[in-house]
Amino acid sequence: MNDDATQQLVHRTEVVMNNLSPAWKSFKVSVNSLCSGDPDRRLKCIVWDWDSNGKHDFIGEFTSTFKEMKGAMEGKQVQWECINPKYKAKKKNYKNSGIVILNQCKIHKMHSFLDYIMGGCQIQFTVAIDFTASNGDPRNSCSLHYIHPYQPNEYLKALVAVGEICQDYDSDKMFPAFGFGARIPPEYTVSHDFAINFNEDNPECAGIQGVVEAYQSCLPKLQLYGPTNIAPIIQKVAKSASEETNTKEASQYFILLILTDGVITDMADTREAIVHASHLPMSVIIVGVGNADFSDMQMLDGDDGILRSPKGEPVLRDIVQFVPFRNFKHASPAALAKSVLAEVPNQVVDYYNGKGIKPKCSSEMYESSRTLAP
């Protein structure tokens, strides 16, 4: 019940059919949704007799508070008389229309994104850049990889906008950066997971500026080729994320940023890789650059349905966010970063809460937040 006397629905139970002593299933609701964090806020519970024609019969109601409901913790029960005001006013001997019993109340602390960050969880940010021939010859001003002396191309804009936010959550600010879809020196064989600094033993670059410099330096040495396969780079990062699970701690969470100009050609392998990665401390962000038709890419983003592997195995959780860069061509870098990173805090929280992993050293000093923003 709101301060202005209006009412807001918090929860509706299932219907228990043909039973004069119904027992409803337990349910979960956040304290914020239940009472806006105020344990003394009045809560109204209304009981109806369901009717198939939609004209449900009012049985009765009662009010309580979250503070009262917490009395059902530690094996105790709390009960209320369900009152029908109309019957109470008309009948002298009316007591109630039944008793509602709360058998159990449990409080589960849900740690926030900020709890994990303040507890020492590091965001391990990895970049993967599309160097397939469909981008166009980098020496041509029409190419998506063209290096203009004064204006960054779309790859650089997306990289800097997202990377500069992520680097604030990484203490050493060293970022692995890979390319895919190009022929690389010295043999000029096609690779789908090469280090853009050409140091396979240490693919890390110092800060986002280091990634930018490595990108600009490697471009003249590559032969753009194809196809557009991203499963190998997802598998590479997933291997590191898998090793992190052995710690059983909230130490490192991996974000893979994939920048690509077209629809991927290894969709089956990519779906398989994403389903596997959904069990790991990892998120995948795909930014589509250029004007290609990215409609097929939306299937990797589980917003419209559940992504499944070719064998039918569903993702454990939604870890992919796809954003077409053209939607933000005239927006600020902050707007792009906000959209691209919008789902990451919840993905971090959902992974660790789902595994029952608490922050390494949570602090009550900091206000909880689920926001990753500039």
What is the secondary structure topology, with strand pairs?
Elements: H1 31-35, E1 43-49, E2 57-64, H2 66-69, E3 78-81, H3 85-90, E4 99-102, H4 113-118, E5 122-130, H5 154-166, E6 174-180, E7 182-184, E8 189-191, E9 194-195, E10 204-206, H6 207-218, E11 223-224, H7 231-244, E12 252-260, H8 267-277, E13 282-288, E14 320-324, H9 333-340, H10 344-355
Parallel strand pairs: 5-6, 5-12, 12-13, 13-14
Antiparallel strand pairs: 1-2, 3-4, 6-9, 6-10, 7-8, 7-11
Quick synopsis:
This protein has about 375 residues and is of the alpha/beta class. It has helices spanning about 30-35, 65-70, 85-90, 115-120, 155-165, 205-220, 230-245, 265-275, 335-340, 345-355, and strands at about 45-50, 55-65, 80, 100, 120-130, 175-180, 180-185, 190, 195, 205, 225, 250-260, 280-290, 320-325. Strands 5, 6, 9, 10, 12, 13 and 14 form a seven-stranded mixed sheet that branches.
